[in-house]
Design brief:
This is Dioxygenase. Keywords: Dioxygenase, Oxidoreductase. GO terms for molecular function: dioxygenase activity. It comes from Devosia insulae DS-56. The structure is a single chain. The protein has 314 residues and is α+β, with helices and mostly antiparallel strands. It has 6 helices and 16 strands. The strands form 2 sheets. An 8-stranded mixed sheet has the order 2-3-4-1-13-16-15-14. An 8-stranded mixed sheet has the order 6-7-8-5-9-12-11-10, with helices on one face. The longest helix has 14 residues. The radius of gyration is 18 Å and the shape is globular.
Length: 314
C-alpha cells in the first residue's frame, strides 16, 4: 500500500471565458488568485490558480480557459462535484451571496450528516460548500469575504463512475480507507492526511459517458511532500500495472499522471517548491508568469490573452 499520499493537492477544470472565470473564483467565492500563467502545451491559453493566501496544497482550484471550447456534458468517468469547506453556520451567508450573483442550481441539502450547499459555476462546474466546524485552516480574506464565512480549502471531491469497484481498490492502495456509504455513494478518507482528505465515489451504472468541455474537471491531483515520495509512489503504481508518465516539471510542483480504471485522470503532485518560487507572497498572481520555454512569446501573449479584469470593467 502507498503511504505517501496525503490528500488532495489541486483540482484542474476547463473553462471558456478567462475574465468570467477570474471574477467567479476570486470575487464571488473570495479565493485568492495565486498564479496566472499559461498551459504548458497550449501557451495561448491561461492556466489560472485560485486558493488560500499561499496556494497551500489542498486549497487550489485551477482552470484552463480555452476561448472556443464547447460546454462539457456531465456523465460518468469524471470528477462530479468539487467540494469546499466553510465554517459552521455560514451556508445562509453563502446562499444569499451566490443568489445575488445569479449563481445557478442553488440547493441546500444534508449528506453524510453534513450541511451542504450545491451550485454551478457560470460555465457549468458542479461545486458545493460543506460546513465543517473542525477545519482550522486560515482562509484568504483579501477578496471581501470575512473569516467567519470564508472558504478554508477543499473538503472533498466526488468521482462519477458506472462501476466504482476497481477505482475504490485503487484509492485503498493509495492509502484511503472506507468511511461510510449513503445511497449509491461510497465515501473514502485518507487517515492522517491533509484537511482535503475525502473522496466520494458515486456509482451510476446506467449513465452516459461524460464529454470533456467547459465546466468539466480535466484532472484531480493528490499531494505528496516531495520528489522522493513522488518517485516511490510512481514505482508502486508502475509495479501494480498502471501506465504512469515520467515526472514533469510544472514550475510550482512536479507532476506524474495516470488514468484510473473508471477513466478519471489522476495526478500526483509535490508540495514543493510552491507558488512563491517566482513571486513574493504579497504579490502572488498579480503578473503573468511564463514557463521558461514560452518566455520568448511574452510580448505576443500579453497582447492576445484576454484581460482578466474585463468583466469588472464592463
Amino acid at each position: 500500500m502507498i503511504t505517501q499520499i496525503k490528500g488532495l493537492h489541486h483540482v484542474t477544470s476547463m473553462a471558456r471565458d478567462a475574465a468570467e472565470n477570474n471574477h467567479f473564483f476570486s470575487k464571488t467565492l473570495g479565493l485568492r488568485r495565486v498564479k496566472q500563467t499559461v498551459n504548458f502545451d497550449a501557451p495561448d491559453v491561461y492556466h489560472l490558480y485560485y486558493g488560500d493566501e499561499v496556494g497551500t496544497p489542498g486549497t487550489v482550484m485551477t482552470h484552463f480557459p480555452f476561448p472556443h471550447i464547447a460546454r462539457g456534458r456531465p456523465g460518468v468517468g469524471e470528477v462530479g462535484t468539487t467540494v469546499f469547506s466553510v465554517p459552521e453556520g455560514s451556508l445562509g451567508y453563502w446562499q444569499e451571496r451566490l443568489a445575488a450573483d445569479r449563481v445557478g442550481d442553488l440547493e441546500l441539502s444534508e449528506s453524510f450528516g453534513e450541511k451542504r450547499l450545491s451550485f454551478r459555476a457560470p460555465e457549468g462546474d458542479a461545486l458545493a460548500l460543506v460546513e465543517n466546524a473542525a477545519d482550522a485552516r486560515l482562509p484568504w480574506t483579501g477578496n471581501g469575504v470575512d473569516a467567519e464565512q470564508a472558504i478554508r480549502g477543499f473538503h472533498s471531491a466526488s468521482l462519477r463512475l458506472r462501476d466504482g469497484g476497481a477505482t475504490e481498490e485503487l484509492l485503498k492502495f493509495m492509502g484511503y480507507e472506507n468511511a461510510e456509504n449513503s445511497g449509491n455513494t461510497h465515501r473514502l478518507i485518507r487517515p492522517d492526511g491533509n484537511p482535503a482528505n475525502t473522496i466520494d465515489i458515486e456509482v451510476l451504472p446506467d449513465a452516459n459517458r461524460a464529454d470533456l468541455g467547459a465546466g468539466s474537471v480535466h484532472h484531480i491531483a493528490f499531494a505528496v511532500e516531495n520528489r522522493a515520495a513522488q518517485l516511490e509512489v510512481r514505482k508502486a503504481l508502475l509495479d501494480t500495472g498502471y501506465q504512469v508518465t515520467p515526472v514533469i516539471d510544472r514550475d510550482y510542483f512536479w507532476a506524474i499522471y495516470f488514468r484510473t480504471p473508471g477513466g478519471v485522470l489522476f495526478e500526483i503532485a509535490t508540495n514543493e517548491p510552491g507558488f512563491d518560487r517566482d513571486e513574493d507572497t504579497a504579490h502572488l498572481g498579480e503578473t503573468l508568469k511564463l514557463p521558461r520555454q514560452h518566455e520568448h512569446l511574452r510580448s505576443t501573449l500579453e497582447q492576445t490573452l484576454q484581460p482578466l479584469e474585463e468583466k469588472e470593467a464592463a
